[in-house]
Design goal:
Elements: H1 2-18, H2 41-51, H3 53-76, E1 79-92, E2 113-127, H4 133-151
Antiparallel strand pairs: 1-2
Helix pairs in contact: 3-4
C-alpha cells in the first residue's frame, strides 16, 4: 500500500519535474558515508520525497495560506479593546481660587489642600461590523487558496 502511494505521488510530480518547477535540490539529512546503502525502490522514493526541497517549500507555502485564512477569519470577529486606569490626585484649593476663611467660632476650617484621593476606571469597547463585503470576499479567497494549496501537485 505504501508503494502504491509513493508511486502515485511520483506520477503526479513527474509533469512538474519535467516543467522545471521547484523540484531541484534537496535538504541533507543524516550523515554521509562512503559505503553504499541498500535501498528498495520504495525506500529510495520515500527518502527523496522527505528531503525534496520543492515539497518542503510547498508545505511552507501551505502553512502561509492557512495563516492568511485565519487572518481573514479574524477580520470578521468583533474587535474588543480594553483599558484600565487609576488616578491619584491632590488639590490645592487656593490655587483654584477658593480663598474662603470661616470664622473660628464654627469650630472647623476648610483645608487649603485636599488630601490625596483616587479613582479607578475600567473601560471595555466593542465594535462589530454588521456586513463588510471586502472581509467576506477576503475570507472566500483565502479558503479557495487553502484548497488550492492542499490540492497542489507539489504539496
Amino acid at each position: 500500500m505504501k508503494l502504491q502511494t509513493l508511486l502515485a505521488l511520483l506520477s503526479l510530480a513527474l509533469p512538474s519535474i519535467a516543467a522545471g518547477q521547484n523540484f531541484q535540490g534537496s535538504v541533507a539529512s543524516g550523515t554521509a558515508t562512503s559505503t553504499p546503502i541498500a535501498l528498495s525502490f520504495a525506500e529510495a522514493i520515500d527518502r527523496g520525497l522527505k528531503t525534496n526541497l520543492g515539497l518542503l517549500t510547498s508545505q511552507q507555502s501551505s502553512e502561509e495560506v492557512r495563516a492568511q485564512r485565519i487572518r481573514a477569519l479574524s477580520a470578521l470577529l468583533p474587535q474588543v479593546t480594553g483599558q484600565l486606569s487609576m488616578t491619584e490626585q491632590q488639590l490645592n484649593l487656593q490655587s483654584l481660587g477658593f480663598n474662603v476663611k470661616l470664622p473660628s467660632s464654627l469650630g472647623f476650617q476648610i483645608p487649603k489642600i485636599v488630601s490625596p484621593y483616587s479613582y479607578q476606571a475600567a473601560l471595555l469597547n466593542t465594535s462589530v461590523s454588521l456586513f463588510d463585503y471586502r472581509n467576506w470576499s477576503n475570507l472566500r479567497s483565502s479558503q479557495e487558496s487553502q484548497k488550492a494549496a492542499q490540492l497542489s501537485v507539489t504539496w
